[in-house]
């Protein structure tokens, strides 16, 4: 596949940093003041990370990465956007977490080489990451290469079924088994703030079976796969706020899973 998609997405995400860093959505000042950006279900399902080495793939500006550091982990954030990594490093300094956090500029596919073959207890991938990757088999091999024996991946993602509903949240549209990248030309990001100047991006849809099969093929053991009826945005008008910053369909409305979480372990060598 041509590398054009990578150049387009990197330029798009470099530009997003300008918008995101000043947005109310990301609220960097609130984070500097001690806010945690991890969701409660992530903290519960990952468990105690005190003293563990954690790498966050596709970390963007590093708030989730640094939130794990605040919970006691030694963290490494990896992202292909130098602009995002620069913001993350400054945020680590501002929050007094630079002694337990580092940030590395690297495409996710070359992360093992960029990190010098280092291994980690936890590989964490946050929400909205997989759509930017064309090849999950290669991604899963990267995850396996980064894990220590007995270490685990924790993935939280938007469910691919949730993206198939029409804007009214009632009718299905699109194709769950669509293959190939889709190019978008859109002047805004998902946050508040000014328009982008680098508006082109390429995304891929990955059915749930593709994710699980890629991880199994890389030698990981899937320990849990939880589909969630809640999501983080009011993606459809029918969704109602839950009171804890999430949204779901109201009682009596037909439901589809809107998010999922997955935990997979790299078995110890025999």
UniProtKB/TrEMBL annotation:
The keyword Methyltransferase applies. Pfam families: Methyltransf_25. InterPro entries: Methyltransf_25 (IPR041698), SAM-dependent_MTases_sf (IPR029063). Its EC number is 2.1.1.222, 2.1.1.64. One of its GO terms (biological process) is methylation. Gene3D superfamilies: Vaccinia Virus protein VP39 (3.40.50.150). Residues 58-151 form the Methyltransferase domain. This is Class I SAM-dependent methyltransferase.
């Amino acid at each position: 596949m041509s590398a054009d998609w990578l150049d387009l997405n990197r330029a798009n995400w470099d530009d997003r940093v300008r918008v995101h860093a000043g947005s109310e959505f990301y609220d960097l000042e609130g984070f500097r003041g001690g806010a945690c950006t991890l969701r409660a279900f992530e903290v519960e399902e990952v468990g105690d990370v005190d003293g563990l080495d954690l790498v966050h793939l596709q970390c963007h500006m590093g708030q989730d990465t640094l939130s794990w550091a605040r919970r006691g982990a030694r963290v490494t954030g990896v992202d292909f956007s130098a602009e995002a990594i620069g913001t993350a490093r400054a945020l680590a300094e501002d929050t007094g977490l630079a002694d337990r956090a580092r940030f590395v500029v690297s495409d996710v596919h070359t992360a093992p080489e960029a990190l010098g073959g280092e291994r980690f207890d936890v590989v964490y991938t946050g929400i909205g990451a997989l759509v930017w990757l064309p090849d999950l088999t290669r991604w899963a091999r990267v995850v396996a290469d980064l894990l220590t024996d007995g270490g685990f991946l924790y993935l939280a993602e938007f469910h691919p079924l949730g993206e198939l509903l029409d804007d009214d949240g009632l009718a299905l549209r699109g194709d769950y088994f669509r293959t190939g990248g889709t190019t978008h030309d859109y002047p805004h990001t998902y946050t508040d703030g000014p328009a982008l100047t680098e508006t082109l991006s390429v995304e891929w849809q990955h059915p749930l079976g593709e994710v699980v099969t890629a991880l199994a093929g890389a030698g990981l053991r899937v320990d849990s796969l939880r589909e969630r009826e809640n999501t983080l945005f009011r993606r459809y008008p029918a969704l109602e706020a839950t009171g804890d910053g999430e949204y779901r369909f109201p009682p009596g409305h037909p439901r589809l899973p809107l998010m999922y979480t997955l935990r997979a372990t790299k078995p110890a060598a025999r």
